[in-house]
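Q: Two folds, back to back.
A: First:
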Amino acid sequence: IPGLKICTAASPDAAYGLTKSMIRDDGPGMMFLPVKMMKEIKGSVDKDVCMPLNKCVNLHEASAESISKGKAVTVLTYLHGVKESQVALKELNGLGYDIDLIELRSLKPLDIGTIQESLKKTHKVIILDESTASGGVGATISAAISEKLYYDLDAPVQRLCMDDAPVPYAASMEKVVVKRAEDLVKAVQVLADDKF
């Protein structure tokens, strides 16, 4: 669909700023929001801010020390994955690892420039994805990275996504299917230590 923009927001201020920009944009747009997460976050939003519909946001930059030791990984995520990554970040730092945490606020168009900027430092990437292995968001992003940023990679793109199965309704079963902070911690350790 020409001109289609697909955005995600993991915080109320991003939801507001992106929605305001979509209203003013001439093309069609879609916004995905984690409603449950929005209820947990309290605060105010700046009503005068329009956010770009074509940019990712680097929420946390890996330290220079972790990058020089090869213990840093780029993590691309969106929606619930943002919260899970922030939880994992604390544990990873305690274990001597670090991440460049990039929130994919724009899925279409994909901000390949911001991703490349991070990969030039870390050379390794994990996509923490809420969709399924086949035909999901992570599959498309992984393909774009492999095609356009191949020479910036020192390892294959790692995807943490759901199996090709429905998400169970029971919360206890959902935790087994949907990837969480602990899955990201393990994946960063494996990738950073070249044990993939």
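A: Second:
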Amino acid sequence: MDDPIQRHPTRDEQLDILVSVLADIVPNGGRVLDLGCGTGYVDWMLLQRRGDLHLTGLDLKPESLAEAERALAEWSGQVTLLPTDLSDAGAIAVAGNGFDAAFTALVFHDLDDTAKQACIRATAARLKPGGAFLIYDRVRLTAPACFPLQQAIWRRIEREHGRGMRDAVDFDAYQADLAQNNRPATLQNYFEWLPQAGLQAQLLHLHGNVMLMGGVKAA
């Protein structure tokens, strides 16, 4: 199955890290929740490595869920796909409870900050004690004086990978380029929001301005 997005030069590496962590920590026959599963690409990657897992995928778009169903047909008895609007945290209850892990990949920047916090709380409530929530998403840049440092990282990524992540001539242009549905949170936000939901938080990987954050529910 081909990655349906392929926009970020470091995406392959970071998705591999995300899947590697999940494959390593979830017990045999464990349950995993995917918030914003899209066409099922990350679920497919995970099931390739851990065909024993049970996956529940939530997504707003019926056409994406239909594609995910086709892509994951090999594991149809272990996959549940549910239409869900993640901006309504109450809707996440449709997934049930008792998950060993949950994750989301490049979805949270589509939600406003209130919805992000509600989604984190709702997900934490669905985890077993000791369960983990992994968030792979963009990070909002907030320090204008440091923006040239970030530009240097973007240029280095372009040199190494042959294509860029993004760029802007200055910090004001970066701010203006963030669309209404492109609302990344800051690292500081996540270090506040995850503990507020009962999760211990740890930054696991950061490349450019795309992070993998982990949170673990108290055992």
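Q: And?
A: The chain has a mean pLDDT of 92.
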